[in-house]
Amino acid sequence: MLGEVKINDNQKKIYEEMGYWGKKTLIDYWNECVKKHGNREYIVDDIGNRYTYKEVDEKAGAIASYFVEIGIKPLDIVSFQLPVWSEFIFLTVACIKLGAIINPIGMCYNPEEVSKLLNQTESKLYICPTLYHNTNYEEVISSIKKNVKKLKTIILVDKLKEKKVTIMF
């Protein structure tokens, strides 16, 4: 799905000389922030959960390790359809740590649109809530998963019950 990124060496040199581009990656910047601001609050989600840089980094590290266990590799596409919950940030940072590509999907997308996006991106992993604002996402993904060719794993985040995560294969 994703082709090789080609960067014009002359243009790259110009951008580097002008200071627009540097040698650091996103994970370099993230690690610097964690080191410098580890105990500073980083996120507050729309249900009141609060996390510091260090807490986000630890959770993202655990998620990235799990992704490796289930076969997610650098440049694999990880799709998630989540509301403004802290898990959105945990997943984003986990993907940056792993080198996976994030494909966040808006909560307003219908099953046909989600199916199309998952196929277009050749997502290997899809993460969504079990239920959110009267939409049963577990039913939605169950109804379309047979039409999504490359999808290997589905993870459901359940905010209705304490600390429940369901994994479907």
Automatic annotation (TrEMBL):
Keywords of the record: Ligase
EC number: 6.2.1.-
EC category name: ligase
Ranges in coiled-coil conformation: none
Domain of life: Bacteria
Molecular-function GO terms, alphabetical: ligase activity
Domain AMP-dependent synthetase/ligase residues, every copy: 32-163
PANTHER family: LONG-CHAIN-FATTY-ACID--COA LIGASE, NONRIBOSOMAL PEPTIDE SYNTHASE PES1 (EUROFUNG)-RELATED
Annotated protein name in UniProt: Short-chain-fatty-acid--CoA ligase FadK
